[in-house]
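Two proteins follow. First one:
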Amino acid sequence: MYRTGIAVLLFSSVLCAQEYWKPNPKTTWQWQLQGAIDLSVNAEVFDIDLFDNTPATVAAIHAKGSKAICYFSAGSFEDWRPDAGRFPDSVKGRNLDGWPGERWLDIRRIDILGPIMESRIQLCKEKGFDAVEPDNIDAYVNNSGFPLTGAEQAEFNRYLAAAAHKRGLSIALKNDLDQVSTLLPYFDFALNESCLEYDECDRLLPFVQAGKAVFHVEYEMAASSFCPTTNALGFNSLQKNWELDAFRVACTGNESAAEGPELLAVVSASTLTGGGVVAGQLVLLYGRDIGPYWMTRPEGVPTAEAIGDTSVTFSGRTGLLLAASRHQLTAIVPGDVGRLRNLDIAVKNGDAVTETLRVKVLEANPGLFTLNGTGTGQATAQNEDGLLNDTLTPAVRGSAILLTATGIGSNHARVWIGGVEAEVIAVGPGPENLPGVVQIQVRVPAEIEGGAKVPVVIESLGVRSASSVTLAVAP
């Protein structure tokens, strides 16, 4: 291994120029798909139906100083829409439960659906909308009537994103939580229904960490019961009814919360995904009032069992802390928990202790660190010449490159670059011996094609990382 200053990049973000409007992470909003749009609502963004609203309504929203999001269904056929005649029977699948006149679409047939969806997005543009919200883009996890795969759904969703962006419109990833890590680079914000009801809000955290807005609604819960939680997660939440009319109770950020700290989620520090932890893994803990108000690090040492009055235990074992703030801790899972099936995690802040949060113990949960801090896009990697790997300084085929990861079980790793298995030269401690992190030195296969976004995947004990991380490799 060679020494590197790459550790400072592991928690940094890359700022990209915006070519079109994107909502700020904290943005007030209204979602109304039924009835005359209530323009008296004090919101920075209005999400309204494409077909039921005129350019005059969009102009009125803009006159308020607000932005307009264009709703349409991209994954279902609706028999009442004006373009319903463009959909052949061959692409219509099963009915959507509870939605008369609506059927799933065969999203594999981009040759048929693509022109229809492009026409809809173009109509959004012509009516003056600023962004689009395509609905029902998770058919592959529903009983659609077609044998759809996640890869096919991701291809269709990326197609929609490209169609929106080339028209200068931003785009929401609607639900589809299983593919957040894959699709995060292509979508500008998220819109989710009922993640608290189904205990899956942690899967939206990559959007928050990437500085992208999360718009969220609950239908079966009162705002007073969920706002403190979603405020702490950084969401923009509403209580709505199922009719999605003008009724709206917005989380203002001032809701009174239950007294004492609350631990909400534990995710991988590299991929920002949950599902379990690995012994020795670097993790992020999200919550409310779980640490000091400002981000604080141990004095003079990289880790400590406590930062001020804040500490964390994993089934009674004290974890090491790298950083702590009011809503986030960076910690290392103790190395002796591998034989346990579950961990009961609790945070102590001052004299108060959170209720325990139970997570699974996994043999491996590999994830590569990336420059944007979300587990997607350009890997945090060092070329053989010591330079940071990026499009300006790509790796040379046949040369060694240093990858940075966490969640590697028993320091066992295999690596694929450009779809070709690479020679693993060494697996060892992280940069500057950063705890919870490992470095994997591999040789870039000589036979692969070069490019700015060559996929890199790591595998540990049979578990593979997401395929959305890339390296720059010279032609």
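Second one, unrelated to the first:
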Amino acid sequence: MNPSLRRRSSYSLIGILLLAPMIGLIGISSPIGPTGESDDFHPSDLSLEKIDGIWIGKSDLAKLATSGKAWDGVMKEAIRSTLKPDLSDQDDSTNVRVLAKALVYVRTGQESYRQDVIQACMGIIGTEEGARSLSLGRELMAYVIAADLVRLPPEKDATFRNFLRGILNRKNREGRSMIQTHEQRPNNWGAHNGASRIATALYLKDLDQLKQAAKVFKGYLGDRQAHTGFRFKDANWWQADSAQPVGINPMGATLHGHNVDGVLPDDQRRAGPFRWPPPKENYVYEALQGLLSQAVMLDRLGYDVWNWSDRALFRAFTWLHDVAEFPAVGDDGWEPYLVNHYYGTDFPTLESSRPGKGMGYSDWTHPVPQNKK
């Protein structure tokens, strides 16, 4: 094992040793129940008026370099065509290309990129017909953030806002709305829908919607007092405590003597029942795409998301790297940049990342701050 990875996970190992006398290290265990956390977790000064940007502020973008491999990655996507956006196609990459155009416009002021964004944001209206919630969850967030960055013209903005007001509650092909998917599916479906829900709430300045979404996210990370409406599947496979299932296993959790601290059970189960060594299940990284996106947006509002449930997102990455020995690659390669940025860690990164299902470019937008290195 890489020594730096071992150092990162040391706090989890210490936690297991300290808790072992209480829980034992055999069979199914849940050393720290997801209870006892205060429900009063919203920032005392929570306001949707004070933030500069849903995902990143224009002042932050102005400081970023316009050269180097990270910038080249943004430009590579920004110059691609975005003429046929489609919310119903869960694999359509137009959304992240539109986001790249918005980022380039804000950084350079080149108006042609803004016009492409405006055209695409108008173009998605109507393409939600026949879509599954997964498609909408993956696709929508990038368009909302892009619209926020370029500031749509007033008449088009009114049309876009009216569209957004209806999309969260509409019944989709599988019979659930985006909100229901977020609140019921503790996996990649719910994670992506949560990200698009939060982005939409921020764009519409819908404080009640935002606060409810934050509660669901907190519940996903392990606080069952915040939200318990999830519908788990195969809970006896990877859950540390199948009687009290959670979206991310709690700190120090074990199954049959093996470390499952940080496992995302409802996506890890896609690889089948518990077995060891653990299978490298890519659905886990897809869920983390949505979860990290939610965390970044909530963090900008002052929510203490990176510390929730004993730093659940950090523990998820620690398990994937230290236990499953499964680093992020492909369209998940932008995720470690965010984790390193917010936790000051050194998870391995790709030299140049490519965007994911609904977000990307964090190698450019979220470098590790000097004071965290």
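SUMMARY FIELD: The chain has one domain: 3-44+53-366. The first strand starts at residue 254 and ends at 255.
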